[in-house]
């Protein structure tokens, strides 16, 4: 039973030892331990504040990135629309130029055809006139073999010709 009931000496020496340990701990250990705990608490708070700041900066950066992305999209759409308009204008201009050139070629070809046609007609008329004169000469020679018939024919024709 002695183990259950401590003696007075044991309690005295335990109290003195506890007081010395308590004094030594309070003198040398509590301040550094409390300071390190306080420093640890401050570093944790600083880390939490830094994390919150980083989160806010990331949020701001994401918002800026979204804004830049939207601007880039709008600019891309604008550039695509402008390029499409330029393409349409170029195509329309090319069609217009091609039509104008085609019309010029058609007019030139028509003029060339008309000129060739007139030339052919004039040549044909000349040939017909030459052939007609030759044929008339041959017919007249055949009909009027004697000199008196030729003179009568010429006189008749001279009377019918009127000078202006």
- Portion in beta strands: under 5%
N-to-C span: 179 Å
Order of helices and strands: HH
**Biggest beta sheet attributes:** none
Low-confidence stretches: none
Number of DSSP helices? Answer: 2
Give your account of this protein's structure:
The chain is built from two helices and no strands. It has helices at residues 8-143, 147-160. Helix content is 91%, strand content 0%. It has a domain at 8-115. The chain has 164 residues and is mostly helical.
Fold topology:
Elements: H1 8-143, H2 147-160
Structure described in brief:
By secondary structure, this protein is mainly α. 91% of the residues lie in helices and 0% in strands.
Based on the model shown, name its key terms.
164 residues, 0% strand
């Amino acid at each position: 039973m002695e183990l259950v009931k401590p003696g007075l000496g044991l309690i005295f020496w335990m109290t003195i030892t506890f007081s010395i340990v308590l004094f030594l701990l309070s003198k040398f250990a509590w301040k550094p331990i409390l300071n390190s705990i306080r420093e640890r608490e401050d570093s944790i708070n600083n880390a939490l504040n830094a994390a919150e700041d980083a989160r806010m900066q990331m949020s701001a950066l994401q918002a800026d990135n979204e804004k830049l992305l939207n601007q880039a999209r709008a600019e891309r759409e604008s550039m695509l629309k402008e390029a499409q308009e330029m393409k349409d204008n170029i195509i329309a201009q090319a069609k217009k130029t091609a039509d104008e050139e085609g019309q010029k070629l058609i007019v030139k070809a028509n003029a060339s055809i008309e000129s060739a046609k007139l030339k052919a007609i004039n040549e044909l008329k000349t040939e017909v006139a030459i052939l007609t004169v030759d044929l008339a000469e041959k017919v007249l020679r055949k009909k009027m073999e004697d000199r008196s018939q030729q003179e009568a024919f010429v006189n008749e024709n001279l009377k019918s010709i009127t000078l202006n």
